[in-house]
Amino acid sequence: ENSQQVVENWEDLKKREKGLKTHTQVLQDIPAVLPALVRSYKVQEKAAMVGFDWDNVEGALNKVYEELEELKEVCTDTDAGRIEEEIGDLLFAVVNVSRFLKADPELALVKTIEKFIDRFEYVEQNAHRPLEEMTLEEMDKLWDQAKALFNNENNV
To answer: How far apart are CA 86 and CA 92, in angstroms?
Structure first.
């Protein structure tokens, strides 16, 4: 009747072909070799198909804030496993927000990495002495210049 039903029928067919009997098996069937951001997105999509999802992006955003607070609580902890767990929870929550906003988290992170490198290059090229001899405040001033310069270029 509609595109949603087509997707549901397709998912049901794939589930039967693979002999998957539970929703958990469907999640486990998502290849672990995928990049973590992609796999996270797919796991969340599959969970959402059975109604395990927020009603809107605000619920997903609130989860990000909650996970960030939990990370803040363990920042001084010496338990690396706990810190890693909270960082993972925060990343998972951020991926969920990206899913609500229909933004590919892998592509978004790739673009941000390249943007960081471009800005860092500007800092390095415009530094009047080796970066190792500069303060963070001095580098940050150049970073802000790069940010303004590149934002203006992108808005032209």
So the answer is: 10
Orientation angle between helical segments 105-126 and 36-49, nearest 10 degrees: 150
Instruction: Report pLDDT digits (tens) over 46-90.
Output: 999 999 999 999 999 999 999 999 999 999 988 999 999 999 999
Pair of tokens at residue 11: 């998912």
The helix or strand, by DSSP H or E, that contains position 98, with its residue range, turns out to be: helix 80-100
pTM, two decimal places: 0.86
By CB atoms closer than 10 A (0-12, 13-18, 19+), residue 10 is exposed
* Integer Cα distance of 101 and 44 in angstroms: 13
